[in-house]
Amino acid sequence: MFREFLDLGRHPIANAFLKDGDFDDEFFFNLKACWDEETKLVSIKDFVEPERIFNDDYPYHTSNSFPMVKHFKDVARMLKKKFNPMKVLEIGSNDGPFITNFDKETSVCVEPCGNFSLKTAHMGYQSYTSFWNTELSEKIKSHHGKMDLIYAANCICHIHDLDDAFSAVANLLSDDGVFVFEDPSLLKILERGSYDQIYDEHPHIFSVTALNNILKQNGLVIFDVDNLSVHGGSNRIYAKKPNIPSDNVMSESVFHNLREEDSFGINEFETYEIFAKRVENSKVELVRMLGNLKHNGKKIICIGATAKSSTVFNYCGIGPDLIDLITDTTEAKQGMFAPGSHIPVVDRKSVNLNDYDYVFLGAWNFKDVIANKEREFVENGGKFITHVPKVMVFS
Ligand code: JHZ
């Protein structure tokens, strides 16, 4: 049974940046989160059709977040060393920072956004412009054979039908192949109060507990987990087919994560009710703080036109009256308006940050990178605002 615990109100598509004059036709949906008593999976209640979200205009270029390029290079190196895969498939390859570390002849990309699949195709990789499902896994199997490594980062939690997604993986994985995927961690979200990880692109928020339950039902078993710091705390899950009974040994990391999640209360509905209260308080505090600063004549700008900031701004009702501008390094977002809030997005280079008193961290997950880049702003008396793990000012 699905039990609703959080109502974040009306939201636009978090990455649907608008041109001037597009505001009247903007699409909105109700963003609510629920918890499945049976599998312990957290999901959003009303899914948005994926075609509305992931299309040729999708603006999130992974390569624009340079720490992530290094992250994927490091992951690729580690996976090669650990598993030495011959054939590699990436699901949700975006603009290619992971797959580029693998051989073009033996690697395949799947990506529904045509702007990106065209890019990896130009780079010389076999690229399928498609959503991930069983039909596609059959097609890839018949063209390329089974895969030794199937990798997906920040993609599997984007897929509504997890049973189909996982059985499609099991269908394409070689008998001793590995399926490795990483997504934001529910535990970290609950611990840090980072409710802004909930938006249309994340129909599910994964715990190791829920994944352990769901993978098992679809012919896969978890054998290892890495806890990562990226995206405010993610889990990298290693799964495989349960071929050889004696080989089904779960590493201690799996048990450790299951225990940790259980003792935090991931298996209790009350934990989610407490989280919902914390989210409501965060909204009240953030709106109060920004309102007071504005009242005192302070100027506030945001760095990072993130999907996460769309949740914050739309849930809290924050618009250009409180935050003048958002800067973002992604060209496709610049010159546009943030979804729902309609705050203008500009190139960081076009702004003198010293004209502002406060920077709200839309990309709080890159707090250290941004604080380091913007040392001059702090030296001139500028301060940062974040809402994670609580609403606060720091410099
Ligand atoms: P970032 C996206 O979420 C969407 P977002 C998606 N659904 C997902 O799951 C996660 O990514 C993984 C900019 N930036 O990574 C670049 C600066 O302007 O937190 C990006 O637009 N200056 C696929 O959007 C944004 O911030 C900087 O110095 O919440 C960061 O977006 C840096 C470092 C980044 O993901």
Radius of gyration using CA atoms only: 21 Å
- How would you write the strand order of the largest sheet? 6-5-4-7-8-11-10
User: Which residues sit in consecutive blocks of at least 5 with pLDDT less than 50?
Assistant: none
Sheet/helix structural class: alpha/beta
Strand content: 15-25%
What is the total tally of β strands?
Answer: 17
N-to-C span: 45 Å
List each distinct ligand once: ligand JHZ
Number of helices: 12
The coarse overall form would be globular
Give helix and strand order, one letter per element, not per position.
Answer: EEEHHEEHEHEHEHEHEEHHEHEEEHHEE
* Average pLDDT reading: 96
The helix content, as a percent range, equals: 25-40%
Largest sheet: 7 strands, mixed
Could you characterize what this model shows?
- This protein is α/β, with parallel strands linked by helices.
- Helix content is 33%, strand content 22%.
- It has twelve helices and 17 strands.
- A seven-stranded mixed β-sheet has the order 6-5-4-7-8-11-10, sandwiched between helices.
- α4 (134-144) runs parallel beside α5.
- The longest helix has 27 residues, at 269-295.
- The protein starts with a strand and ends with a strand.
- The mean pLDDT is 96.
- Residues 60, 64-65, 154, 201, 231, 303-308, 327-330, 363, 365-366, 369-370, 373 line the site of ligand JHZ.
